[in-house]
């Protein structure tokens, strides 16, 4: 998201109102987008802070429904005309398309990997081995059943054990658990730490071979009303087609599994040579005792049918996962 201004700023032009959550990460992400929108449109952008239910509730995401809890208030503000557009972490978006709104842009994706922030800067291997030598299991915090499932499965495959601890809170709160010694490590999204300028605190990037990320992780979603066609067209200049198509495959898998964003489901689509899209999907239970992993791939041409092709790939992989017993493992399929 960079380059030369596309329009001259009109004197006295009304500022565009960008709705954002109040967290430091949300504000950082929205600020990045705001600067690009000003460059594209020549209009100033005002950040409008909105508190969502997910920000105020202290319950675990699985307990409050997970899907949409960070998004609904922003969408209501859009439809009511209180803001002109909104920026979301794409992994927080429900898979069902909202009436009256359009996904105007999916900018180029940040680093998709999860990150370990551990005491003494230890890697996961080092941490587990050091604490095993001290006669105890590593305590690792995360609010994600997806991460819990894959961490516990990784440990079991090595003949080790660790304790995954459910946590909530912003980045400062989560890393604070490590600094205070309450936890030995926490797992966070690399993209968020990068956007906050805190990548130096990462002890280890957890590659997808160890931990596949959440569907849409590392990507942003820019929404506006379908009626505001002029703004939608301007925002479309921020869209990155390879990212949009990849996350379409991941989200189609999630939708076909009828799973929410708090379910123990992981998906990652990546581009190979000759427009080959590979989609990896994982479903497990949080204790890691069962983990089902499958892959699918196919050539996709980046034309007007690309998202449709990607969704078909995602649905096909979901069908295979369901046939392999994914619904039983998730335990959260919609009734």
UniProtKB/TrEMBL annotation:
Gene3D superfamilies hit by this protein: Periplasmic binding protein-like II (3.40.190.10), Porphobilinogen deaminase, C-terminal domain (3.30.160.40)
EC number from the UniProt entry: 2.5.1.61
A Gene Ontology biological process term: protoporphyrinogen IX biosynthetic process
Location of S-(dipyrrolylmethanemethyl)cysteine modifications: 261
InterPro entries: HemC, Porphobilin_deaminase_cofac_BS, Porphobilin_deaminase_N, Porphobilinogen_deaminase_C, Porphobilinogen_deaminase_C_sf
Occurrences of domain Porphobilinogen deaminase C-terminal (ranges): 246-322
Porphobilinogen deaminase N-terminal domain mapped to chain residues: 16-231
Pfam families: Porphobil_deam, Porphobil_deamC
A single GO cellular-component term on record: cytoplasm
NCBIfam families named among the record's database cross-references: hemC
Function: Tetrapolymerization of the monopyrrole PBG into the hydroxymethylbilane pre-uroporphyrinogen in several discrete steps.
Misc. remarks from the entry: The porphobilinogen subunits are added to the dipyrromethane group.
Family note: Belongs to the HMBS family.
The protein, known as: Porphobilinogen deaminase
Source species of the chain: Streptomyces rubellomurinus (strain ATCC 31215)
Phylogenetic classification of the source organism: Bacteria, Bacillati, Actinomycetota, Actinomycetes, Kitasatosporales
